[in-house]
Structure prediction request, 147 residues.
Amino acid sequence: MKLHEIRIPKGARKKPKRVGRGESSGYGRTAGKGNKGQNARSGGGKGGGFEGGQMPLKRRLPKRGFTNPFKKNFTLVNVGDLDKKFPENTVVDPALLVKEKLIKKLGDGLKVLGKGEITKPLVVKTHRISKQAREKIEQVGGKVEVI
Prediction:
């Protein structure tokens, strides 16, 4: 058997029910919705949270929390990842990290964290850096520049 010989089994693909297309189809006239009433109208029926007139659960529970509209979402990178990817004395900036596919997109900025070990000096240009990451980079003779 080859890939081009494989066929979809009979009954695997079900055709959609075509309502309102003539009496002989069995779904003509009222299109399976019965006669009159809320559910026969377009957009009819009750909403998803309707509980028969009882106060819905969503409205019974208190509102909690707060979303800070000024929150910044930084893209995170560890020093261990930088050590694996770049040779000595490389100037590592956000644009290079995106180009090398170490990060997908920048967001509100780049933050370097201290997870992992670093063995070669690098010049790191970043928006934020943790204290541990700064110490590790400077310990091996590298530099940190905050943009």
